[in-house]
Design a protein that fits this description.
Layout (H helix, E strand, L loop, with lengths): L2 H15 L17 H14 L4 E6 L5 E3 L2 E2 L6 H7 L7 E11 L2 E9 L4 H7 L4 H9 L4 E3 L16 E3 L3 H4 L6 H13 L12 H8 L4 H24 L6 H14 L4 E2 L4 E4 L20 E6 L1 E3 L2 E2 L2 E6 L6 H19 L7 H18 L38 E4 L2 E4 L12 E4 L2 E5 L4 E3 L8 H7 L5 H4 L1
Parallel strand pairs: 1-7, 5-6
Antiparallel strand pairs: 1-4, 2-3, 4-5, 8-11, 9-10, 10-13, 11-12, 14-17, 15-16, 17-18
Bound molecules: manganese (II) ion.
Manganese (II) ion binds next to loops.
């Protein structure tokens, strides 16, 4: 939209309808985590912080997509976890112990954007200072324009200023070059806005790795939606379909069931594309045969599901596809079984790898003891606000939610009989560790050969259009 058009529309809409202050839900979720949850988590963080320290969290930057339009904003997960606030340009400051300011004292400050009719007309309602106090329960709330002016923001008196690694704030490893340039810039042009960077990673890992009942309720909903989408997609697959249409079925079900977003770029790859681990182009059309691998999850109130199913385009597995599939399924079942309190997650990976290695030897795809490239990734990861969630990988504890996702990928040109080429199979479930064992939260999505072939006989939403 051009600036001129924007100005015209603004004048038009503002002139006729005035300023509507009804919140559109962008600022916070009224059915997400509760203010009490966020408050308790800030208290838990405080308990882990060293004496005379302060922790500073910036939410995510806004990323430009094209000319004057931006990517949809998503808050930084740590920031959201501690506050529930979903607007950009915000800073949270958590003190180990209360700090005096004005006539009182507080052990945490939050700095947020000001309310502004012009901006809200375009981008939706903001909470502002009063809104954050009322809806999110934070008490010491200031405008972000006050951040560096506030006398209490002189952080030099603290023994430690904790803040996330700069690369995390700015968007991860793919921004390494940009971040490096910014680092050089900030070194040569010291900015008072940049506190000494010390990673809060370990503390946040410890807090976020165990899910509370309140989080589990939301995470289970995200997984339920993701699973329902898989079932509808599996039913919709038949010869002639495109990867994109199947992606659309997943994301349609997500939206229809109330998910606000996808948890990560949807992966829908058929034939040789099933062998590309993070394939997100999804642009192959007129699928006729082979397998189609779908690694797709919905994001619901910030939490992501992460389910993978691999099914035959024709509705029936070929002999070779079935042979590979059965090995991966066996590895999934053994890996899931091994997910118990006190077990080491790395051992879960070894259990699955041994089954895959033996299966490949039995089929003559590799020789005994041969190193091979057909299972190149880890067995799984923590799942939560981030699809690859925070947390160390060691002994399993109750309240952890992890994925188990073995796979075998044999791309065209591999060093084996060409009859195995273009078969990529991954099966992924979401596992909650309990006191007595585990709960497979994506159990309801069919995964055996028989159950998948049976489900594929049904019509899906694509056939009903
Ligand atoms: Mn995964």
């Amino acid at each position: 939209m051009t600036k001129t058009l924007k100005c015209f529309l603004f004048a038009f809409l503002f002139g006729f309808f005035g300023w509507n202050t009804t919140a559109n839900g962008q600022s916070w979720f009224d059915d997400g985590l509760s203010p009490a949850f966020h408050k308790e988590r800030r208290q838990a963080l405080r308990a882990l912080m060293p004496e005379n320290s302060v922790a500073v969290f910036f939410t995510n930057p806004i990323k430009n997509r094209s000319n004057d339009t931006d990517f949809a904003f998503r808050p930084n997960s740590d920031f959201y976890y501690l506050t529930g606030f979903r607007e950009p340009n915000a800073v949270l400051v958590v003190f180990k112990s209360p700090q005096g300011f004005g006539n009182g004292s507080a052990d945490e400050f939050i700095f947020v954007p000001a309310r502004d009719p012009r901006t809200e007309q375009w981008e939706g309602a903001r909470l502002g200072v009063e809104g954050v106090q009322e809806k999110l329960g934070l008490e010491a709330v200031f405008l972000n324009s006050e951040f560096m002016k506030s006398p209490a923001m002189d952080l030099s008196k603290f023994a430690q200023v904790l803040s996330p690694a700069k690369s995390q704030t700015e968007g991860g490893r793919h921004n390494a070059t940009l971040n490096g340039m910014m680092e050089v810039f900030y070194t040569n042009n010291p900015s008072p806005a940049k506190p000494a960077a010390m990673a809060l990673d370990k503390m946040m890992n410890q807090l976020r790795v165990i899910k509370s009942e309140e989080e589990l309720t939301i995470l289970k909903k995200a997984i339920e939606i993701s699973g329902m989408a898989h079932i509808e997609a599996i039913k919709s697959i038949q010869p002639g379909v495109s990867e994109r249409a199947i992606q659309g079925v997943h994301e349609f079900v997500h939206k229809a069931m109330g998910a606000e977003d996808i948890g990560y770029g949807s992966i829908v790859g058929a034939g040789n594309n099933s062998c590309i681990l993070h394939y997100v182009d999804n642009d192959k059309r007129e699928l006729q045969d082979g397998v189609i691998l779908m690694d797709v999850g919905a994001e619901y109130r910030g939490y992501s599901g992460d389910i993978t199913r691999t099914v035959p385009v024709k509705g029936v597995f070929s002999k070779e596809e079935k042979a590979i599939y059965e090995i991966v399924l066996k590895a999934l079942e053994a890996g899931t079984e091994a997910c118990k309190v006190g077990e080491d997650f790395r051992d879960v990976g070894l259990v699955a790898k041994q089954i895959i290695d033996k299966g490949l030897v039995d089929l003559g795809i590799i020789k005994e003891g041969e190193r091979h490239p057909y299972f190149p990734h880890g067995i799984g990861h923590h799942l939560g606000l981030d699809v690859h969630d925070r947390g160390a990988y060691g002994k399993l504890m109750p309240g952890m939610v992890l994925t188990v996702e073995p796979g075998i990928y044999i791309p065209e040109g591999s060093n084996c009989d060409p009859k195995w080429w273009k078969i990529g199979v991954r099966i992924e479930d979401n596992i909650l560790i309990t006191e007595t064992g585990n709960l497979n939260l994506s159990q309801f999505v069919p995964r055996t050969v028989a159950d998948i072939e049976k489900l594929m006989k049904e019509d899906g939403v694509l056939q009903k259009l």
